[in-house]
Amino acid sequence: MTRIPRLTKDQVTGEVRDVFESVGRQRGNVPNMYRIFAHRPEILKSMTAHLNAITNTGTVPIRVKELVATFVSRTNHCEY
């Protein structure tokens, strides 16, 4: 059980809802980290800008970047 509730699209408004809709279109769902950070919209906005800069720029395909992130996480025995 999580200590911080994960917000749903129905529980957010304004910029947070816009982020949820954008991420949902891109990924097919809204990952839990977005739903947790939605409690602090200023942090969600910063995190989203950071992740967009990483994934949507450069010459390495997004799929490869995601595979690298998954590999590093598994190598370091990070649980979900």
What's the SSE blueprint?
Layout: H1 14-27, H2 32-37, H3 41-55, H4 62-75
Q: What would you note in describing this structure?
A:
The model has no long low-confidence stretch (mean pLDDT about 90). It is built from 4 helices and no strands. The chain is mostly helical. It has a single domain, classed as Single alpha-helices involved in coiled-coils or other helix-helix interfaces, CATH 1.20.5.
Backbone structural class: mainly alpha
Cα-based radius of gyration, to the nearest Å: 14 Å
CATH class: Mainly Alpha
Q: How large a portion of the residues is in β-strands, by DSSP E?
A: under 5%
Structure keywords:
80 residues; mainly alpha; Single alpha-helices involved in coiled-coils or other helix-helix interfaces; 4 helices; 0% strand
Short description:
This protein is an all-alpha fold. The protein is built from four helices and no strands. Helices cover 61% and strands 0% of the residues.
